[in-house]
Every structure is written in structure tokens, then in C-alpha cells.
Design brief:
With about 1100 residues, the chain is an alpha+beta fold. About 30% of the residues lie in helices and about 30% in strands. The strands form 15 sheets. It has a 5-stranded parallel β-sheet, sandwiched between helices. The protein has a 4-stranded antiparallel β-sheet with strand order 11-38-37-36. Strands 12-13-14-15 form a 4-stranded antiparallel β-sheet, with no helix packed on it. Helix 3 packs across helix 5 and helix 21 runs antiparallel to helix 22. It is elongated and about 130 Å long. The N terminus is likely disordered.
Amino acid sequence: MTTQVDIRGNIAQAEAIQVNSVNLTTVHTLAEVDQLCLRTLRCANALVVKNKLKENKDKLLYDLIAWVFQDRQYLSWQDGEKISLLWIKGGAGRGKTMISIGLVDRLLRRQNDSTMVAYFFCQNANYELNTLESVIKGLIQQLVFKQQGLQIALRRRWDCLKNRFEEDTTSWRVLWDILLEMLEGCTCQRVYIIVDALDECRDDDKTDFLKLIVRTGLHNPAKIKWLLTSRPLHSADRELLTGNDQAQVSLELNLQHISEAVKTYVAFKVAELDRRHNYGKELRRKLEAVLNEKAESTYLWVSLVCKNLEGVHRDDALSTIQEMPPGLPSLYHRSCTQLRNRESVDAKNCIRLLKVMMLAYRPLHSSEVGSVTGITDSVLRIDALVDKCASLINMRGTIIDFVHQSARDYLSSGDGKALLDSHEDYGNGHVALSCLFFLSAELRFNICELPRLDSTGKLTEEMKDPKECALLASMEYAATFWAQHLEGDSNTLLVQNALTERGEVSRFLQAKFLEWLECLSLLDKQEMAIEVLKTMSRVAESAPFVSTFVQDATHFLVRHYHTIANWPLQIYSSATVFSPERSIVKRENLDKLPKWLKQIPRMDNDWSSVIHSMGGHSDKVKAVAFSPSGKRIASGSHDETIKIWDARTGDLEKTLAGHSDWVYAVAFSPDGKHIVSGSDDNTIKFWEIATGKLLKTLTGHSDCVSTVVFSPDGKHIASGSHDGTIKLWDTKTRNLSKTLAGHSGRVNSVAFSLDCKHIASGSADNTIKLWDTVSGALKKTLACHSDWVNAVAFSPDGKHIASGSGDNTIKIWDIATGNLWKIIDSHSDCVNTVAFSPDGKHIVSGSDDNTVRLWDAATTSLQKTLVGHSDWVNAVAFSPDGNHLVSGSNDNTIKLWDTMIRGLHKTQVGHSDYVTTLSLSPDARYVASGSHDSSVKLWDARSGALQKTFAGHLDALNAVDFSPDGMHIASASNDSTIRLWESVTGALEKTLAGHSDWVNAVAFSPDGKHIVSGSDDNTIKFWEVATGKLLKTLTGHSDCVSTVVFSPDGKQIASGSADNTIKIWDIATGNLWKTIDSHSDCVNTVAFSPDGKHIASGSGDDTVRLRQ
């Protein structure tokens, strides 16, 4: 077994720059694989969570919950063979978690070889404990620890070559299947599963989770026992207790038991206080009586009041509790009122801390409080602040959290919210800036002081776990969540000022971006860096400097992702060195390169448009699609498979196999949970993404299914086939709804309008048809293409349809009238695929000319040509945010492209790379320029204003020339072509293809009827302008032709070459007339005198020569 080794032990090797990713072969033991599986799952430690809760619940009195163990329903669940699920429900503070802890401890004491206990305690305020994903991961971890062999369910899903799971283990549905597999494989006679406080789980899928428990988790009530606790929960009321295998214990219906238990708890708490304050028998009796009267059978109220009494003198104890209001809401209100009425610094800091706790995405470690609140007191002082808010928050070990979810609920509305709002303005923006100030002050190179390597490649000292670094730990919250807090206040003046070029955000990114990446990598939270940058791209839309930096930073992170993950300190060396010259991140951090690195290689100026090139299919890629979240890409291929890829990293996540012939089409459902595929095996297959399971095969077409698409509302699937029909399927029942017939040829493409009212179809009968989705009636037939229609797409506003055809054109149609609106005809071969950008401003197309092209939808001007595929481009799709494209090709690859859409609507004044050639128009009014950026630009010679940009070449420009009448421009390029442009409109007139290598020179004849070109293929070619025909090929040079020119009378051509010679040719015959070989180096330029009697030449030998 092989894997890429995570050599964090070597991450300080600044002595060597990693040029390419290093794959080392390592043999792993099964135990090591199991450890990798569990580490990758990142499960919360349920035992630690339970023990922390237990600490907070005082000394657990089993007498308080003894009644539960005698409850008939509980005993039937615990010992019987018919009850598989028990639901304990009750209001806030009734002791549900205390009951759960007691039950777990009781069952653990009884645990033996024939029984097993797994449990999880949900906590709303902790993002690591408030999702279904975390619940199931916690249960899986415990099952693996408690029985050898169960880990095989994880091990067989582990890809040892890529060091990751083959399935998406962030999906609770995938994890559920793993859990069920483990429960099936468990050899114990009985397994108890306890999930506490399910209501504090934030997932919207709680109802689906409960459905799955009922439908798939209760089939063996004698073996598998589920116990859930929650506050009253509507979804639970609806889904649970629907069968004889389910039971309930309602704390509200057991108030007599609860009341007696609370009395016992009161006596216990007063006895504890008595040992501290020496109350005496009479005062103890009075205190117990008042507490019992006001407790309202709520443990939490008693606990909070008695906590308050710890610091009260015995003489004031009775009056203090007499002043305490009954019930939790009143108690919270009293605590808030006391804080509001104080003017001390401590009181203000307490309110700030409460505000931050409400805003925080998880409970805070005591060492993190300063970074988030700006309160710079010591940890000891933070403890004191928490004590002053003891009725609302507390500290469990070093973790600060709300005493109960009900306290958080109180502060989120009514009087509680009014208290927080009445104090200083300290919101999300202030939290974000506090985080950035802290990070700016503390982040530094090699923050954990990782050891270096000696000359033999061994560590100079023992490697320590970075997570044991206290400073790193104190940065975790700030480093992970600063951008989310910034977004929370993005419209405020505070945040807008922070986003300016000299604002706090800009200064942080410029000074500490690399150190921040190192920090997240060491924390094993590198994926959060991508999420932070995505958040910042939204926040900084109107902040040019930050927006540009974030765009470049995203390139930097994505291109060097695996290097940063495995060798964090290489951020400062190889990642920086091998970034483009114009990278902002590189420019801002050159001073951080290792001192021993005296010279660095020159890189390309800009990031490549290709972000990832994904190879994995063994045959042509015919279909691609983005998931609605933009996080995944699906591809379908002639290798009969569908593959799902991580769009961030380009890694393959899973392969769906089931078709028996070529896969032509794939589409994601709008909720991102399913994929549908169409194949040459005449079937449509419906897949669940999380598990990769085939849910259903839809049959009905009698020939290849060439296209499938979900309706935007997710209720229907439309499919098109070579049998000439479109079929509509109901996604809920997955049954055929209707068949649309009308095309006389195969259907190649179908698309839904955004409002789901219409379907467009493109066919081999050269037409587009528009159908009514509800009735199935044909509304319009659009006919103007002269070859097959391969692709159709609706504009987002529903006003236009774009179609791509085998006639090499894209046509845009007005839906209301059915009229042809615009034609795009710049592709040189069949157009296979078209798509509108999500905002409707751009169209992308893919063609048999191997290119992907991006067009302005309004003007139809070409914005960008993406070159990289080596064969036909069959499919393209925009990402949901419009910033990326994915394409699939006959070269078996999928490519992810950066479209830089946000900059495309702006006129780019000036070339983006160096200018290689100039030509002055005959009337001297205009200048044409050609550049390494692949474009030709036309400028006003007097004002210097840009008039037009001619885009279409696929590589650098080497030469441009005006026709004698100034109406045309010829351009020569490294793409081996010459292109003729209309200088007034900018339209491409012709592409002259015939050279087999770079075209270095081009010139019009004096009468404008002919063009001559010179190339790296050592030839000169003579063309007719009107027809574009190649008339002659002149051979004789033994090296590349660098320059060509017509004589003034148009009868001769002079050419200069890297073979150091000038040759003069007779145009009429094509014969070589003379060779001049007086130069000792390449001839770069030649020119005739106006009378045609002399020739001047310039050469690499540093001379200019004039001869007759």
C-alpha cells in the first residue's frame, strides 16, 4: 500500500525548495491506516465532553434520577426486546442532560462483553458539537474504540494513495451508512446509543435524521437501543412514536417525580453551602423551604441561585434568595438588570463578553477571550469576569460557555437583547478587528519553532506536536473566524474603513498573509483558508485593493494547496518563488525568502487560467457540471463512468459506475444531493451523491440518452435522446410524466427556463424547439442553423436562448418573437456546448477547434479565449458564482478555469503583456499594436485613446500590418495563423491557416490584393486576400523566416532569416532570384527603398546594411 507521506516533521526544511510535489512510498500497517481514518474524521471526544458536563452538574446525585430507572417505559427499553427507541423530552432546566449522564454512567457500569454503550452530547453554541455530522462521527469513534474489527467499515473507504476517504465524510448521510454497517457488524448482543439534546443540533435535516433512525435504525429492537433527549421538538413529535417499537418519557408528565428529585437536590445544595457558611439547622430549613417554593421543579434554577449564594454571608443568605425571582427567565432578567445598573469597568467588560459570546461561532477557550473581545486582562481576570456573569455563563475547565441554551435564548430577544444593545457598540466588526489586531501582533515565521534538518536530512531536535503550542492554540478562533465576523458587519462604516487600501484588513493581508496560512496549516484547518477567502471576496466587492489581493491570494492558496498542507514552511520559499512575477502575494513577501537563496528563477507574469487539470477518465469526457454549492464537479465519459471531483483541490472524490455504455450527460439536482446521468445504453440513472448509491434507473428511450437536466425547482428531469424525443420525469416518483415529440432528428440538448415554464431543445434536424413544460405543447420552432444544433441554453432572465451548432456558429434568439438576435461566428470548427453565466452577462462556448471562448452576451464581443485542451471541447459549465468555468474534452481531461469575470466588463486600456509589433495606418491616424497577450489593439495616433481590441489569436502576436487602403489589418501569431480584420468594425474576416509553426512576419502587397507571411517552419507563403487561398509556398531558407516585405512595384518579395541570409523572390514565378549572405547573425528586418533600387537590413550581428 502506498501513500503520500505527511512529513510535518520536515516542514522546517528551508534548506531545499520543493519544485514538484514529492510522492514517497510508505508501507502502512493496518493500525496506522485506522489511526489515519479516525484522525481525518476529526471526531469530538465524547468522554471528555461528558466529563466536562458532569463537572458543571455538581456532584451527580443518582437519587435524583432513580425514578427514571424504575419507569416502565425505560425498563422496557433497557431490558426488553420490543422497544428500540426511547425519547425523553422536557423543558429547559428539567434535568435532561443530568438524566443522560446518569443513564450513560449506569449503562457503562453494566457494560460487558455482550453489551456496548455509545453516546453523544449536543451543544448548540459549539460548532463541533451541534451538527448531525458531529453526532454520528462521535458514535462511530466510540464503536471503533470498543470493538476490534468495526474499523473495517472506515478502512475499506480509505484511499491509501491519496490519504483521504473515497466518500464524502462531511455528509451525515454517508456517515449514517457507515454507522449502520458498524452496528450490523457489532458482535455484542446489545448496543445502547444515547444522543442528548438533539434540539441543540443546528441542522435543518433533523427531521430526515429522525426518519432514517425510524426506517433503518430500529429493525433489531433486541440488539440496537436508541435513546434521544430533547426539549419539545415539532419534528420529533411528527416522526417519532409512530410504531410499537418506540416509547416516550415526558418530564412534564412526571412533574411529581421531578419535584421530589428537585427537593432532594435542594437539600444537597444547601448542605454543601452549610459546610462552607455554617448556617445551622434552622436557617438550613428556611433556605430549603424558599428554594423549593421558587424552583418550579427546575434543577438549573436551584443550581444558579446556590452558585450565587457561595459568595454571600450567612446573615444575608435568606434575604438574598427571597429577592431571587422564581423561574429561569426572571432569574436571567435579574442578572442582566444588575449588570445594566453598574458603572464599573468590570460590569462593562462583562456585557462585552456576553455580546461576544452571543456572536461567537463556538464556546471560547479562556486564552482566546482577549483576541476576540479586546479585553487584555490576564486569564485569571477573565475568570473573575465569568464569575460576575455566573447566572448566564460559566467556565468548564478552560472553556467559557453559556450555563444553558435557555440563557442564550434569553439574551437573543426581549430584555436580554435590549441589555446588550444598550451598551457600547461592539458587534461583529469589532470582533473581526480585534482578531486581526491580535493576529498581526502574534503571528510570525515558524511560530511553533519547528526543528530544521541537518546535513544528513535528520531532525536537529525532537519534533513536537504543533497543537501543543500554547500560542498557536490561542490563535485558533481568531485565525478561523475573523472573516465571518467581518461579513456580519460588512455594511458598517467601521468595516468599510477597514477595507480601504490603508485599512486594518489591507495591512493584515500585506504583512501577515503567509504567516496566517502557516498558522491554519499547523492547526490542520487549511480548508478554512479557502472559506475565509471566499467570504472576503464577497465582503470586499466594493474595495478594489482588498478584492484584488484576495483574488491573487486565492490563486496562491489553490495552486500551492498540497505543499502548504504538508510542508507549511515552504510557504516562504517554494510557494513564493514559483508564483508568477505579478502575483501580489509574491511581491509583498519577497523579503521573507530564505537568506541563502541568492537568485530565483523568472516565472510567467500571471497565473495560468487553468486552475486544475483533472485526469482520471480513460476515455473522452462528454459532460461536466458544477454542484449548486460550487464545491464539486461531476463529469461523464466514454469510459462509462461518472466522476465527482473536489472543485477546490481538483481531487477525485468518487467514481459512479453502473452504465454499460458511454456516458453523455450529467446534471446535479438543485439541492446538490443527487446526480442524474444519461448514457448510450439508453438509460438515465439517478444517483445519491453522498453515498454514491444508484437509486433508480429510468428506462423509456429507445436510443442513446444524449442530454439530461433538472428543472430549477427540482421537481422534474428532462432528457433528450437520439430517438428524437424529449421525456419529462417526476423526480419524486421517478416516473415518466410525458413525452415531447416533434424533432425529425436526434435530440442533442435540452434546457429549462429559470421559471420552469419552458423547455428548449436542440436537434440534428438543425432546429431549436420551444415547449410548454406543463402541457407539453410545442410553442415555437427556431430554424436558422445550417447544421446540427448541439447545444441550447436559456439566459437567466428568460428572454433569450443561445444555441451552438455544427455550422461553427453560436446564435442568440429572442424568445418572445422567435427572431434571431445575434450571431457569433469566430469558432473555426463545430460548436459543441454553450452556457450563460449566472448573471447573464456572458456566454461560454466549447468547440472542436479545441478552445473554450468567453463572450459578452450583450455585444457578442470575444472577451477571452481559453487554450489548453488538445482535442475537441465537448462540455462547459459556469460555477454558481460565475468566477470559474469547467470544461470536458476528447483529450480525456476536465479543466477548471479562472474566468476573472468581475474584471471583464471593464475596458482594459493597454496590453497585459509586452508589445511585440506596431503598424501605422496609411493616413497616419491610427496605430495597430500586437502583443504577447494574444491581442491586437487599435489606437488613435493623436490622442492615444484605445479604439478597439481584436481578440481571437490563441498565442502571442509577432507582426501586424495595415492594408494600403487602411481598411484591413493582418496579424501573425505564434498560433501558426494569420488573421485578417476589418479595421473599422473590428470583425474577424478570415483566418489563414497553413503554416506549421509560429508566423513571425506578415505584409500586404502594394495593391492590397495579396499577403505574404514568413514562419518558423522556414517557409514564405503567398495568399490571396479576397478568398484567403494559399497561392504559393516559397522554400529555400534553412532556418526560421523572421521578416518579409514587398517591393514598391509589387513584383518582388524580400525575406530575412535566422540562417543569416536575405533572399529576393520573383512573385510571378515564385522562383528565388537572389541570395544575400553578408550578415553573420540572424536577419531581423528588411526594407525596400521607395524607388525599389536598394534594400536595407538589420541583424543580430549589430549592423544595418544597405545594398543595391
